Amino acid sequence: MVVSQSAFALMVFTDRLFMSQIGALHIASALGGGVTFFVTIALFQGVISYATALVAQYLGSGQLDKCPRVVTQGVIMALAVQPLLWLIGWQAAKLFALMGHAPDQVALERQYFFVLLAGSFLALSKTCIASYFSGIARTRVVMISDVLGVLVNVPLSYVLIFGKLGLPELGIQGAALGTVIATGFSVAIYALFYFNRIHRKRFSVLRSFHFDRGISLRYVRLGLPSGIEVFVGAGTFNLFLLLFQSYGVNEGAAMAIVFNWDMLNYVPLIGMNIAVTSMIGRYVGAGDMTRTNQVISAAFLLAVGYSVLLGLFFILAREQLMNVFATPGEDFSVIVALGSQMMIGLATYVLADAAILIASGVLRGAGDTRWLMNTSMLLHVLMLLVQVYIIKVAVLGPMASWWAFVAMLLMLAAIYLRRLFGSRWRSPERLAKVMAE
Question: CA 73, CA 67: separation in Å to the nearest integer?
């Protein structure tokens, strides 16, 4: 799962690197447009991705025939929400101008956003099938499919962005189009594994293509809080990002580059989060809670060790890391100076990310999604209100805004750890309700 999620990070990283060859404005626009797209689909993606925990729980309880039925319900949901997604997307695209972005930046952000939105069904379907294979512990399938997708995306985006091999130069639209095509390619690879004869017979795949009321209700009951949590977290983060970009193009470019390096830590930890969700879900389904402590210990050992090393790297090489994205022929010194200071904050909160993602993976696998939703919503909304005050009311500088963001992540990590090391989420009565259809 770490390799799989890192492949996705590499795809985004190279797209932004290609954008940097055009100009700082394109880097900032790709970040704004990309995050806004994620926010637009976040609610539905959060619900659909709960397939990992559901499938793992059915696998642990020995109900193998119900595992592929989860995929069917997820794809039905992905198809059903398409009209709503377009309506939401049309309104979301207005945010760029409302946040005070320059007209040139707004035009680029909208181009990137709408191309990604056109491929939203593919993105949601990929989330569903990848979550299924994670849930049945076939994570090698996820790795192969995602890595092959990236191997298609990187050269394809290069060709489309810069107009090579006789194709027109599409710029930022080419980057988005390359992502959509690569996503479709990954879905096709997943389908080959899904309809493989051995897998098809073991899980009764061909008998799964129907609406299942019990699984659908359980999917929504446990997955909707998870989806709301993802949506509110992504939405408030996106508004913070757009507010921060109102400082100017240099500040927006600095943030985009810092978050690009942040993916080296955050995205592999997402892989750990998915793996932990799957393992905890399986033990919950099997009624074997004694193994959960071993999962928690192993996950923290791996995640914290990785984040400590990466945090040191971010501090020691911060200026060199910023200069990787320097646009040829342009003065990049202002962006490097600001971004280098922000990299210190990044090195500070990487451990908080590790704690948040491991703790949330455990709690999500155990079905404690309502608590995660309430806590995450409260703290993210609080963070956004603080950012509005800092940026728009008090008119403080970008570093004041940045350190307030870092402080919020540290606070969130402390609260998640307190819940994890308590006992309420593992009580037998609550777990019995989680497994009920």
Answer: 11
Tokens describing residue 71: 């995929």
| C-beta of residue 245 within 8 angstroms of C-beta of residue 255 | yes
With tokens 């990049």, the residue in question is 332
Contact 228, 25 (CB under 8 A): no
Alpha-carbon distance 430 to 320, whole Å?
Answer: 50
Task: Give the three-class secondary structure for 369.
Answer: helix
CA nearest 380: which of 425, 343, 344, 416? Answer: 416
Amino acid identity at 81: V
d(CA 337, CA 398): 12
- Given a contact cutoff of 8 angstroms between Cβ atoms, the answer to whether 115 and 180 are in contact is yes
Spatial distance between the Cα atoms of 406 and 6, rounded to a whole number of angstroms? 23
425: left (phi over 0), alpha (psi -120 to 50) or beta: alpha
Interacting residues of 337 by C-beta distance below 8 A, sequence separation 6+:
none
pTM of the model: 0.80
Buried (b) or exposed (e) across 224-247, using 16+ Cβ within 10 A?
bbbbbbbbbbbbbbbbbbbbbbeb
Q: How far apart are CA 281 and CA 284, in angstroms?
A: 5
The CA distance from 68 to 55, in Å, is 8
How do the pLDDT tens digits run along the chain, 437 residues long? Answer: 778 877 777 777 787 788 878 887 887 788 788 888 888 898 899 899 999 999 999 999 899 999 999 999 999 999 999 999 999 989 888 888 887 778 888 898 899 999 999 999 999 999 999 999 999 989 999 999 999 999 999 999 999 989 898 888 888 889 899 999 999 999 999 999 999 999 999 999 999 999 999 999 999 998 899 889 888 888 888 788 888 888 888 888 888 888 888 888 888 898 899 889 999 999 888 888 888 889 999 999 999 999 999 999 999 999 999 988 887 777 788 888 999 999 999 999 999 999 999 999 999 988 898 999 999 999 999 999 999 999 999 989 999 999 999 999 999 999 999 999 988 888 888 888 877 77
Distances (CA, A) of 49 to 39, 127, 135, 219, 239: 15, 6, 10, 10, 23
In the three-class reduction of DSSP (H, G, I as helix; E, B as strand; rest coil), residue 254 is classed as helix
Beta carbons of 115 and 37 less than 8 angstroms apart? no
